[in-house]
Design brief:
heterodimer; A: 14 helices; B: mainly alpha; 6% strand
Chain lengths: 333, 388
């Protein structure tokens, strides 16, 4: 670990500790040693430069660290993880002949922030798009396997994608508000789905969604200006408001801050943490500090496989696999 | 050792000279094309301008019983060869319509014959020396003059140059274009929407695409032959009518509208489509609520330019018989009609000097309409263009 202390501080900052870090460590050690038969009694986490030289320890690390039922290895005890929001099992995806997802299984817990990390082309965005079937738009994509949500298979033919996307919202990498007014951006989808009727109801809903997205105070006086007139960060929050307005169960975010400056990024990260009270958030990110800051669970992807799926603190402080450790410490990717 | 600036500059001289040469060549090409345009327009304006003026004379017309029978006797003998024959023809009708005229003599402005008109404009004419002197005298007294040619815009074609106008051709063009647009716009836009937003990308749709693109390059006269064979011979649509002309032109305009609409749809960024799909729009909602509103300026621009091209088209309309001689303007889809370019074509083939200026005048009117349409297209594009 590069900066283990910083990491744990940040993780604590987002969900003020209900569980002592030492408990995590103990739990981790317990599982780790049970599984691997290695007793790691080291007082402090292994530093990357040291880890490189410790060939013996490294070779003992498993290739993959995840139960086949898709659950994270270590539970995050700070969040209520009784209910499962989405559950992918044995998910395969091909783009033409290229297999982009290889037999993935992953459970996403309700009201958590789950981060998907991994090097470019590892399939994390592809996986994210499977969750609301955006891959349907890519003619060459072929998906097999189950994604269970609310007792239904999202991936089956008889699942109506419109109904699915009504319950699984999405925020994209580049802010893409509709070329309409701010008000219309938020009110459009609820009106389309017949969630709201009259003007008064719409106004109420727009205000609530914009407040949820932390944008209300900045735009309340210019609701009828084009959404595209806002700054990049504001646009992205408008897109979040647009997704929130439908009151979905899950909000998918595909690198939502990669096109934004640090201040906007911080705002949106705060937002994600706040929104998980009501929504389940799955976020793809290239920024590992971001994952460490906002996510309750983190899944590390590599070449279309989940290498390690774990409680965020555990994954960042004591990665169980060599690949995850190398990636987190910035050795590649 | 590194090269000095002087060494490098010496080598660069050749490259800079080449740039200058190329720039000059391009500039010369631009000047040449501008000159062509100016010469063409100047020539047309020069020849056609006088078509908007018309020779008139102020003479005494006596409405008697005799002149109702023999209209020529209504005016003094010396003017009989100078006043338009069309005026004499109207005398009996006018007297019938207005019985009070009988027995009165009125001094009034009448349309002069085209030979007088040409003489007043200083062109070659068939007047005798005596007649010329008479007209010169009338001009001095203010009894003969050139005035704005309202006849040109209010009548149909005529064998008498001074009475020939473009109204029937303009109406024919209007009807034809309405038919063309009514067919082309919905079919073309819907085809483009299907190909761009719905159709899977497979061998079949690619074949259709290639064919549509090729259709746009087919010589227009072939569309005329097709219209003749299918619409007239097979479906029995009345020939020479704006209906058959519009149908034929729509064959020609359709591929252009499809191509320009597809380009407009393609220029809408996918991020907007993704955003719409992401909030649970159906495919049709994505198109109607998000893609079409932003692409409408492009679609309109393409359609207007397609329409302008159809308006200027002559060859296919000649094949389906739309070069009819149309003295009476009619506003019917199934009656025989003519169109502006066909009117210009038929005037151009007449030997009479006076018709030559009508030809140029007709071209000017057509040009003015086309330029207006293109300007409208540009305005629409600027007006509705949105940033995203």
């Amino acid at each position: 670990m590069k900066q283990p202390n910083t990491m744990s501080r940040q993780a604590d900052a987002i969900s003020p500790g209900t569980v002592e870090d030492s408990e995590h460590d103990a739990m981790y050690k317990q599982e780790h040693s049970d599984r691997e038969g290695v007793t790691n009694t080291g007082e402090s986490p292994v530093r990357p430069d040291e880890a490189g030289s410790q060939g013996a320890t490294d070779s003992n690390k498993p290739e993959r660290q995840q139960p086949s039922n898709g659950e994270p290895v270590t539970r995050n005890t700070k969040v209520d993880h009784d209910s499962i929001s989405l559950s992918a099992s044995d998910l395969n995806l091909w783009y033409g002949d290229h297999q982009a997802l290889k037999s993935l299984s992953m459970k996403v817990y309700a009201n958590t922030v789950t981060a998907l990390i991994g090097p470019s082309g590892c399939g994390k965005s592809t996986f994210l798009r499977c969750l609301n079937r955006m891959n349907d738009l890519i003619p060459s994509a072929r998906v097999e396997g189950n994604i269970e949500m609310d007792g239904r298979n999202v991936n089956s033919k008889d699942m109506d994608v419109v109904a699915l996307r009504r319950r699984v919202g999405m925020v994209f990498q580049n802010p893409n508000p509709f070329p309409k007014s701010i008000f219309e951006n938020v009110a459009y989808a609820p009106r389309m789905h017949d969630i709201v009727g009259g003007r008064a109801e719409q106004e109420e809903l727009v205000e609530k969604a914009l407040r949820d997205a932390g944008l209300w105070d900045e735009v309340k006086d210019k609701l009828h200006q084009p959404g595209t007139s806002l700054s990049g960060g504001q646009q992205q929050r408008l897109c979040i408001a647009r997704a929130v307005a439908l009151r979905p169960d899950v909000i998918l975010m595909d690198e939502p801050t990669s096109a934004l400056d640090p201040i906007s990024t911080a705002t949106i990260e705060d937002l994600m943490v706040r929104l998980r009270e009501e929504f389940t958030i799955v976020v793809v990110t290239h920024n590992m500090q971001q994952a460490a800051r906002v996510a309750d669970y983190t899944s590390f992807f590599h070449l279309g496989e989940i290498i390690e799926y774990n409680d965020t603190t555990t994954l960042f402080e004591k990665p169980a696999t060599r690949k995850a450790e190398d990636y987190i410490t910035g050795r590649y990717g | 050792m590194a090269q000095s600036f002087d060494d490098i500059t010496k080598q660069l001289g050749k490259r800079h000279r080449r740039t200058r040469r190329l720039k000059l060549t391009c500039m010369a090409a631009m000047v040449l094309s501008a000159v062509f345009l100016v010469v063409f327009l100047g020539d047309m304006v020069n020849r056609g301008w006088s078509a908007f003026q018309q020779g008139r004379m102020q003479i005494e017309v006596s409405y008697t019983e005799q002149s109702q029978q023999m209209p020529l006797t209504a005016v003094d003998e010396q003017y009989r060869q100078l006043v338009s024959r069309g005026f004499f023809r109207q005398i009996p009708q006018r007297m019938e319509a207005d019985p009070e005229l009988l027995g009165t003599t009125r001094t009034q402005w009448v349309i002069a014959r085209s030979s007088v008109d040409q003489y007043l404009k200083g062109r070659e004419n068939s007047l005798s020396e005596q007649q010329r002197q008479l007209i010169d005298r009338m001009v001095e007294q203010g009894n003969a003059k050139l005035a704005f040619n309202t006849t040109f815009f209010t009548t149909g074609d005529s064998r008498m140059a001074e009475l020939a106008g473009i109204l029937s051709a303009a109406l024919g063009t209007l009807l034809t274009i309405i038919v063309t647009m009514a067919i082309c716009f919905p079919i073309g836009v819907m085809t483009a929407v299907y190909l761009e937003e719905f159709a899977p990308d497979n061998r079949f749709t690619r074949l259709i695409e290639v064919n549509i693109n090729n259709l746009a390059a087919v010589p227009s006269i072939l569309f005329g032959l097709l219209g003749l064979a299918i619409f007239i011979s097979f479906f029995g649509v009345p020939r020479s009518s704006p209906l058959v002309g519009g149908l034929t032109l729509s064959l020609m305009t359709l591929p252009m509208i499809i191509i320009s609409t597809r380009a407009a749809l393609r220029s809408v960024p996918d991020s907007i489509r993704h955003a719409a799909f992401g909030v649970g729009c159906t495919r049709w909602q994505v198109v109607s609520d998000h893609v079409l509103p932003v692409s409408i300026p492009g679609i309109l621009t393409g359609s207007i330019i397609g329409l302008a091209q159809a308006m200027g088209e002559t060859a296919p309309l000649i094949i389906v018989g739309m070069v009819a001689f149309m003295p009476d303007p009619s506003f019917s889809l199934t009656q025989a009609a003519t169109v502006l370019p066909a009117q210009v074509y038929s005037w151009a083939s007449l030997p009479n000097q006076a018709f030559q200026e009508k030809t140029a005048g007709g071209i000017l009117v057509l040009l003015a309409v086309l330029i207006t349409l293109n300007a409208a297209a540009v305005l629409l594009r600027n007006r509705f263009e949105r940033r995203w």
